Amino acid sequence: MAPINRRKLVSTFAVLPLASRAFVSSAKAQGSPGQPLASWNEGPAKQAILDFVHATTDRNGSKFVPPEQRIATFDQDGTLWVEHPMYTQVVYCLERVPAVVAQKPELKNREPFKTVLSGNREAMAKLSLHDLEDILAATLTGMSVEAFEAEANKWIATAKHPRWNRLYTELTYQPMQEVLQYFRDNGFRTYIVTGGGQDFVRIYSQQVYGIPPEQVVGTAGGTKYGYDKNGKPFLTKEPKLLLNDNNAGKPEGIHLEIGRRPCAAFGNSTGDREMLEYTGAGAGARLMMLVLHDDAQREYAYGPAEELPDSKVGTFTQALYDEAKRDGWTVVSMKDDWKRIFAFD
Q1: pLDDT per residue over 262-283, tens digit each?
Q2: Global pTM?
Q3: Residue 132: its pLDDT value, please?
Q4: Fewest beta carbons less than 10 Å away: which of 11, 81, 99, 285?
Q5: Domain edges within the chain
Q6: What's the CATH code, domain 19-85+166-337?
Q7: How many angstroms separate the CA atoms of 268 and 290, rounded?
């Protein structure tokens, strides 16, 4: 069986036309006490966050929000950590193919598994979205919840990004880590609302972001209740989609799993548009922010908004940019608004 080369897989699948997001040294280093958002440059973006938190927590102000209503939602891929050249969970699934084929040898000569195992980059680049969905289904289902958690935990503890040669869990954005902490310090509950797999993100969300698993809303698959040979009950992950938590699925998932409209929402792509629209449609103080990846030197530059390079991963269109400007959303420039990108910078 041909070995899987992580660097080749990441670069190859970066060109696949994904229709939606497929499915940590401790990243809790924050700014020093008394200096919130220390990794942010002074400017309108930083000030918008400070002003919003002050207004919503001032009991004597007209925009005060009771603590139980202080909900802030954050997309993950491209908003809280690196998503290029490919979503982390997709990399995980591709690297799981050899193990899945070892358990199910009948897949060895069946597409798309045969192509992935071959390591032929040209052939892999031609795989369709349907092919990729087959890979995701095979690598994310058919095992107990506990078995999945163990495998994903093992992978996330050692997998490294090909550009920085650092753990994916080290590649969270320090400025956004500071926003998470600043919100929590001021009585907000912070939720991840992601197009990525809910079970996958829940494995590391507490460690990486300080967000407990019950505050992760993501693309969710079905499970089936059963018993092992000793009569112990367990859940098996099934290839059945319950919630596609992307685009309109984000506000639908927020209503289903949180039950309150957020006061603040953070995203970075067209997949987050509806979440920000839904947040902005509420009464009272609102904060909607989009991270624009415009720093090719320290991270990546892609859009195609503002004439940045086009991208099928984390697409930020000019239409989204124009909507943000029209509706009073804040567009965060990585290049101009962030002093540093990562905690290790």
Answers
A1: 999 999 999 999 999 999 999 9
A2: 0.90
A3: 82
A4: 99
A5: 19-85+166-337
A6: 3.40.50.1000
A7: 5
